[in-house]
Write a structure and sequence with these properties.
mainly alpha; Ferritin; 15 helices; 65% helix; binds fe (ii) ion
Length: 356
Protein backbone atom coordinates (compact mmCIF):
# COMPACT_ATOMS: atom_id res chain seq x y z
CA UNK A 1 0.00 0.00 0.00
CA UNK A 2 1.36 3.43 -0.86
CA UNK A 3 0.87 6.65 1.13
CA UNK A 4 -2.51 8.29 0.42
CA UNK A 5 -1.15 11.78 0.27
CA UNK A 6 2.03 13.50 1.19
CA UNK A 7 3.51 16.95 1.04
CA UNK A 8 6.97 18.32 1.69
CA UNK A 9 6.35 18.32 5.43
CA UNK A 10 4.79 14.94 6.03
CA UNK A 11 4.42 11.39 4.90
CA UNK A 12 1.13 9.57 5.44
CA UNK A 13 1.07 5.80 5.68
CA UNK A 14 -2.25 3.95 5.76
CA UNK A 15 -2.22 0.60 7.51
CA UNK A 16 -4.39 -2.04 9.08
CA UNK A 17 -3.24 -3.59 12.28
CA UNK A 18 -4.74 -5.68 15.07
CA UNK A 19 -4.50 -4.36 18.61
CA UNK A 20 -4.00 -7.15 21.12
CA UNK A 21 -4.97 -6.90 24.76
CA UNK A 22 -3.74 -9.61 27.06
CA UNK A 23 -5.34 -10.61 30.37
CA UNK A 24 -2.27 -12.58 31.36
CA UNK A 25 -0.18 -10.14 33.40
CA UNK A 26 2.46 -12.68 34.42
CA UNK A 27 5.70 -11.95 32.52
CA UNK A 28 6.84 -15.19 30.90
CA UNK A 29 10.19 -14.25 29.36
CA UNK A 30 12.85 -13.72 32.02
CA UNK A 31 15.45 -12.40 29.57
CA UNK A 32 13.08 -9.73 28.26
CA UNK A 33 12.25 -8.76 31.82
CA UNK A 34 15.95 -8.27 32.55
CA UNK A 35 16.30 -6.06 29.48
CA UNK A 36 13.25 -4.07 30.58
CA UNK A 37 14.80 -3.54 34.03
CA UNK A 38 17.95 -2.27 32.38
CA UNK A 39 15.90 0.00 30.12
CA UNK A 40 14.05 1.56 33.05
CA UNK A 41 17.23 2.66 34.80
CA UNK A 42 19.15 3.70 31.68
CA UNK A 43 17.08 6.77 30.79
CA UNK A 44 18.98 9.98 30.10
CA UNK A 45 17.78 13.47 29.38
CA UNK A 46 18.63 15.12 26.06
CA UNK A 47 18.13 18.56 27.62
CA UNK A 48 20.52 18.15 30.53
CA UNK A 49 22.88 15.26 29.74
CA UNK A 50 24.28 16.80 26.54
CA UNK A 51 26.66 19.72 26.88
CA UNK A 52 24.90 22.05 24.42
CA UNK A 53 27.14 24.98 25.39
CA UNK A 54 29.96 23.76 23.14
CA UNK A 55 30.41 25.57 19.82
CA UNK A 56 30.10 23.69 16.56
CA UNK A 57 31.89 25.40 13.67
CA UNK A 58 30.58 24.22 10.31
CA UNK A 59 33.34 23.79 7.74
CA UNK A 60 36.17 23.99 10.26
CA UNK A 61 38.47 21.02 10.86
CA UNK A 62 37.84 19.23 14.18
CA UNK A 63 40.42 20.79 16.55
CA UNK A 64 40.50 17.65 18.67
CA UNK A 65 41.80 15.54 15.76
CA UNK A 66 45.52 14.97 15.27
CA UNK A 67 47.14 15.14 11.81
CA UNK A 68 47.29 11.33 11.82
CA UNK A 69 43.60 10.97 12.60
CA UNK A 70 42.72 13.44 9.86
CA UNK A 71 44.86 11.49 7.40
CA UNK A 72 43.14 8.28 8.50
CA UNK A 73 39.68 9.73 7.80
CA UNK A 74 40.89 11.02 4.43
CA UNK A 75 42.08 7.56 3.52
CA UNK A 76 38.86 6.04 4.87
CA UNK A 77 36.87 8.25 2.53
CA UNK A 78 39.41 7.31 -0.12
CA UNK A 79 39.64 10.87 -1.35
CA UNK A 80 42.67 10.22 -3.56
CA UNK A 81 41.46 7.10 -5.39
CA UNK A 82 41.81 7.42 -9.18
CA UNK A 83 38.02 7.25 -9.59
CA UNK A 84 37.34 9.66 -6.73
CA UNK A 85 35.09 12.66 -7.40
CA UNK A 86 37.13 14.46 -4.69
CA UNK A 87 40.37 14.53 -6.63
CA UNK A 88 41.82 17.99 -7.05
CA UNK A 89 39.86 19.45 -4.14
CA UNK A 90 41.56 21.82 -1.75
CA UNK A 91 42.00 20.91 1.93
CA UNK A 92 39.13 23.25 2.87
CA UNK A 93 36.81 21.65 0.32
CA UNK A 94 37.68 18.20 1.64
CA UNK A 95 36.91 19.29 5.17
CA UNK A 96 33.55 20.48 3.89
CA UNK A 97 32.90 17.04 2.35
CA UNK A 98 33.34 15.59 5.86
CA UNK A 99 30.81 18.09 7.26
CA UNK A 100 28.27 17.36 4.52
CA UNK A 101 28.68 13.63 5.14
CA UNK A 102 28.11 14.26 8.85
CA UNK A 103 25.00 16.40 8.18
CA UNK A 104 23.65 13.72 5.85
CA UNK A 105 24.29 10.88 8.30
CA UNK A 106 22.84 12.74 11.30
CA UNK A 107 19.77 13.72 9.23
CA UNK A 108 19.20 10.06 8.29
CA UNK A 109 19.70 9.07 11.94
CA UNK A 110 17.02 11.57 12.93
CA UNK A 111 14.53 10.32 10.31
CA UNK A 112 15.33 6.67 11.15
CA UNK A 113 14.82 7.41 14.86
CA UNK A 114 11.37 8.79 14.10
CA UNK A 115 10.70 5.55 12.23
CA UNK A 116 11.76 3.62 15.34
CA UNK A 117 9.54 5.86 17.50
CA UNK A 118 6.39 5.16 15.49
CA UNK A 119 7.20 1.48 14.84
CA UNK A 120 7.71 0.71 18.52
CA UNK A 121 4.53 2.63 19.38
CA UNK A 122 2.77 0.25 16.95
CA UNK A 123 4.44 -2.72 18.66
CA UNK A 124 3.02 -1.70 22.04
CA UNK A 125 -0.43 -2.33 20.53
CA UNK A 126 0.26 -5.37 18.41
CA UNK A 127 2.61 -7.63 20.40
CA UNK A 128 0.82 -10.38 22.31
CA UNK A 129 2.52 -10.62 25.69
CA UNK A 130 2.74 -8.20 28.58
CA UNK A 131 6.55 -8.10 28.96
CA UNK A 132 6.94 -7.20 25.26
CA UNK A 133 4.41 -4.39 25.71
CA UNK A 134 6.35 -3.12 28.73
CA UNK A 135 9.63 -3.26 26.88
CA UNK A 136 8.27 -1.66 23.70
CA UNK A 137 6.73 1.18 25.75
CA UNK A 138 10.07 1.78 27.39
CA UNK A 139 11.70 1.87 23.97
CA UNK A 140 9.14 4.41 22.68
CA UNK A 141 10.46 6.74 25.35
CA UNK A 142 14.07 6.09 24.30
CA UNK A 143 13.29 6.76 20.65
CA UNK A 144 11.51 10.04 21.41
CA UNK A 145 14.66 11.18 23.17
CA UNK A 146 16.82 10.11 20.23
CA UNK A 147 14.71 12.08 17.74
CA UNK A 148 14.75 15.05 20.09
CA UNK A 149 18.54 14.99 20.55
CA UNK A 150 19.31 14.74 16.82
CA UNK A 151 16.65 17.31 15.87
CA UNK A 152 17.97 19.76 18.48
CA UNK A 153 21.51 19.22 17.24
CA UNK A 154 20.59 19.82 13.59
CA UNK A 155 18.35 22.77 14.41
CA UNK A 156 20.72 24.59 16.74
CA UNK A 157 24.22 23.45 15.74
CA UNK A 158 23.92 22.85 11.98
CA UNK A 159 21.03 25.16 10.96
CA UNK A 160 20.30 25.02 7.24
CA UNK A 161 22.23 21.79 6.70
CA UNK A 162 19.53 19.17 7.36
CA UNK A 163 18.92 16.64 4.58
CA UNK A 164 15.53 15.15 3.69
CA UNK A 165 14.96 11.46 4.32
CA UNK A 166 16.73 9.37 1.67
CA UNK A 167 14.54 7.50 -0.83
CA UNK A 168 15.59 3.99 0.29
CA UNK A 169 15.03 4.78 4.00
CA UNK A 170 11.60 6.26 3.27
CA UNK A 171 10.64 3.22 1.19
CA UNK A 172 11.71 0.91 4.01
CA UNK A 173 9.76 2.87 6.64
CA UNK A 174 6.64 2.70 4.44
CA UNK A 175 7.13 -1.08 4.00
CA UNK A 176 7.47 -1.53 7.76
CA UNK A 177 4.51 0.66 8.72
CA UNK A 178 2.08 -0.80 6.16
CA UNK A 179 2.80 -4.27 7.53
CA UNK A 180 0.14 -5.74 9.81
CA UNK A 181 2.15 -8.77 11.00
CA UNK A 182 3.90 -7.64 14.15
CA UNK A 183 6.89 -9.94 13.76
CA UNK A 184 7.70 -8.26 10.42
CA UNK A 185 7.58 -4.86 12.15
CA UNK A 186 10.17 -6.26 14.54
CA UNK A 187 12.22 -7.73 11.75
CA UNK A 188 12.26 -4.52 9.72
CA UNK A 189 12.77 -2.07 12.54
CA UNK A 190 14.53 -3.88 15.39
CA UNK A 191 16.76 -6.14 13.32
CA UNK A 192 17.36 -4.29 10.04
CA UNK A 193 17.02 -0.53 10.62
CA UNK A 194 18.33 -0.53 14.19
CA UNK A 195 21.03 -3.11 13.42
CA UNK A 196 22.32 -0.91 10.61
CA UNK A 197 22.10 2.15 12.84
CA UNK A 198 24.13 0.44 15.54
CA UNK A 199 27.03 -0.10 13.13
CA UNK A 200 26.58 3.36 11.55
CA UNK A 201 26.70 5.12 14.94
CA UNK A 202 30.01 3.41 15.68
CA UNK A 203 31.48 4.47 12.34
CA UNK A 204 29.96 7.92 12.55
CA UNK A 205 31.58 8.58 15.86
CA UNK A 206 35.02 7.99 14.34
CA UNK A 207 34.33 10.42 11.50
CA UNK A 208 32.23 13.13 13.14
CA UNK A 209 33.74 16.59 13.52
CA UNK A 210 32.57 17.94 16.86
CA UNK A 211 32.16 16.85 20.49
CA UNK A 212 28.40 17.56 20.73
CA UNK A 213 27.40 15.00 18.10
CA UNK A 214 29.85 12.49 19.53
CA UNK A 215 28.31 12.85 22.97
CA UNK A 216 24.75 12.47 21.61
CA UNK A 217 25.70 9.42 19.59
CA UNK A 218 27.41 7.78 22.58
CA UNK A 219 24.22 8.24 24.61
CA UNK A 220 22.02 6.90 21.80
CA UNK A 221 24.27 3.87 21.22
CA UNK A 222 23.86 2.81 24.85
CA UNK A 223 20.15 2.33 24.18
CA UNK A 224 20.34 0.87 20.68
CA UNK A 225 22.15 -2.37 21.54
CA UNK A 226 19.35 -3.06 24.01
CA UNK A 227 16.73 -2.40 21.32
CA UNK A 228 18.30 -4.80 18.83
CA UNK A 229 18.59 -7.39 21.63
CA UNK A 230 14.84 -6.94 22.28
CA UNK A 231 14.10 -7.77 18.62
CA UNK A 232 16.31 -10.87 18.71
CA UNK A 233 14.79 -12.16 21.98
CA UNK A 234 11.22 -11.62 20.82
CA UNK A 235 11.68 -13.04 17.33
CA UNK A 236 13.65 -16.13 18.23
CA UNK A 237 10.49 -17.48 19.88
CA UNK A 238 8.45 -16.77 16.74
CA UNK A 239 10.57 -18.01 13.84
CA UNK A 240 10.49 -21.75 14.74
CA UNK A 241 6.67 -21.58 14.78
CA UNK A 242 6.37 -20.20 11.22
CA UNK A 243 4.95 -22.29 8.39
CA UNK A 244 6.96 -22.65 5.17
CA UNK A 245 4.76 -20.01 3.49
CA UNK A 246 5.15 -17.59 6.41
CA UNK A 247 8.91 -18.11 6.44
CA UNK A 248 9.01 -17.39 2.69
CA UNK A 249 7.27 -14.02 3.33
CA UNK A 250 9.88 -13.08 5.97
CA UNK A 251 12.64 -14.12 3.60
CA UNK A 252 11.17 -11.93 0.88
CA UNK A 253 10.94 -8.99 3.28
CA UNK A 254 14.58 -9.47 4.37
CA UNK A 255 15.81 -9.53 0.78
CA UNK A 256 13.83 -6.38 -0.08
CA UNK A 257 15.09 -4.56 3.01
CA UNK A 258 18.67 -5.61 2.23
CA UNK A 259 18.29 -4.29 -1.29
CA UNK A 260 17.04 -0.93 0.00
CA UNK A 261 19.66 -0.62 2.70
CA UNK A 262 22.73 -1.98 0.94
CA UNK A 263 22.43 -1.76 -2.80
CA UNK A 264 20.75 1.64 -2.83
CA UNK A 265 23.06 3.19 -0.26
CA UNK A 266 24.88 5.29 -2.83
CA UNK A 267 24.85 8.75 -1.20
CA UNK A 268 22.83 10.37 -4.01
CA UNK A 269 21.75 13.37 -1.91
CA UNK A 270 25.32 14.03 -0.84
CA UNK A 271 26.61 14.17 -4.42
CA UNK A 272 23.81 16.54 -5.34
CA UNK A 273 24.60 18.95 -2.54
CA UNK A 274 28.33 18.80 -3.17
CA UNK A 275 27.82 19.65 -6.84
CA UNK A 276 29.41 16.34 -7.89
CA UNK A 277 27.86 14.73 -10.97
CA UNK A 278 25.29 12.39 -9.35
CA UNK A 279 25.85 9.46 -11.72
CA UNK A 280 29.62 9.77 -11.28
CA UNK A 281 29.21 9.90 -7.48
CA UNK A 282 26.90 6.87 -7.46
CA UNK A 283 29.28 4.90 -9.65
CA UNK A 284 32.10 5.75 -7.23
CA UNK A 285 30.02 4.67 -4.23
CA UNK A 286 28.96 1.46 -5.99
CA UNK A 287 32.39 0.30 -7.07
CA UNK A 288 35.08 1.89 -4.92
CA UNK A 289 36.58 -0.80 -2.62
CA UNK A 290 36.56 1.38 0.50
CA UNK A 291 33.00 2.51 -0.10
CA UNK A 292 32.05 -1.15 -0.50
CA UNK A 293 33.78 -1.92 2.79
CA UNK A 294 31.88 0.97 4.41
CA UNK A 295 28.58 -0.62 3.36
CA UNK A 296 29.73 -4.07 4.46
CA UNK A 297 30.50 -2.80 7.96
CA UNK A 298 26.94 -1.42 8.07
CA UNK A 299 25.74 -5.03 7.89
CA UNK A 300 28.06 -6.33 10.62
CA UNK A 301 25.31 -6.22 13.27
CA UNK A 302 22.49 -7.41 11.02
CA UNK A 303 23.96 -10.66 9.70
CA UNK A 304 24.73 -12.38 13.06
CA UNK A 305 21.24 -11.52 14.32
CA UNK A 306 19.53 -12.86 11.17
CA UNK A 307 21.58 -16.03 11.63
CA UNK A 308 20.66 -16.32 15.31
CA UNK A 309 16.96 -16.01 14.43
CA UNK A 310 17.12 -18.94 12.03
CA UNK A 311 16.36 -16.73 9.04
CA UNK A 312 19.57 -17.53 7.17
CA UNK A 313 17.74 -19.46 4.45
CA UNK A 314 19.70 -20.48 1.31
CA UNK A 315 18.41 -17.38 -0.54
CA UNK A 316 19.30 -15.02 2.28
CA UNK A 317 22.74 -16.63 2.65
CA UNK A 318 23.31 -16.30 -1.11
CA UNK A 319 22.33 -12.62 -0.98
CA UNK A 320 24.72 -11.98 1.95
CA UNK A 321 27.47 -13.88 0.13
CA UNK A 322 26.97 -11.78 -3.00
CA UNK A 323 27.36 -8.65 -0.87
CA UNK A 324 30.38 -10.17 0.90
CA UNK A 325 28.81 -9.80 4.33
CA UNK A 326 28.11 -13.50 5.08
CA UNK A 327 31.37 -13.69 7.09
CA UNK A 328 29.68 -11.72 9.91
CA UNK A 329 27.27 -14.64 10.50
CA UNK A 330 29.61 -16.23 13.05
CA UNK A 331 29.95 -13.12 15.19
CA UNK A 332 28.10 -12.95 18.51
CA UNK A 333 24.47 -11.85 18.15
CA UNK A 334 23.38 -8.66 19.91
CA UNK A 335 21.07 -10.36 22.45
CA UNK A 336 23.85 -12.67 23.69
CA UNK A 337 26.22 -9.70 23.81
CA UNK A 338 23.76 -7.55 25.75
CA UNK A 339 22.67 -10.30 28.17
CA UNK A 340 26.22 -11.43 28.89
CA UNK A 341 26.88 -7.93 30.23
CA UNK A 342 24.14 -8.64 32.79
CA UNK A 343 25.21 -12.20 33.63
CA UNK A 344 27.45 -11.18 36.49
CA UNK A 345 24.42 -10.18 38.54
CA UNK A 346 21.70 -12.58 39.57
CA UNK A 347 18.69 -10.58 40.66
CA UNK A 348 16.68 -7.79 39.12
CA UNK A 349 17.59 -5.14 41.66
CA UNK A 350 21.27 -5.82 40.95
CA UNK A 351 20.57 -5.69 37.20
CA UNK A 352 19.05 -2.26 37.72
CA UNK A 353 21.99 -1.10 39.82
CA UNK A 354 24.55 -2.50 37.36
CA UNK A 355 22.84 -0.75 34.45
CA UNK A 356 22.61 2.50 36.36
FE1 LIG B 1 16.91 5.02 18.58
FE1 LIG C 1 16.29 2.08 18.89
Amino acid sequence: MTPLAADADRLLVEAESTTQFTWDYEPGNAQLTRLYEKGKVSQWNATTDVDWSQDVCWGEPDPSLSEDERAMIGSFLNLDAPDSPFQGMTEAQRTLVGWELQAWMVSQFMHGEQGALVATARLVETVPDIESKYYAANQVNDEARHVEAYATYLGTKLPGHTYEISGPLEALLVDIMTERRWDITYLGMQIMVEGLALAAFGMGNVMFNDPVIKQITDLVMRDEARHVAFGVLALKEVVPELSAAELADREEFLLEATDLMYRRFLLEQLWERLGVDVEEGKAFAATNPLMIMFRQVLFSKIVPNVNKLGLMTPRVRQCFEDLQVAQFADQLDTASEELSSLDAVDNLADVARAAG
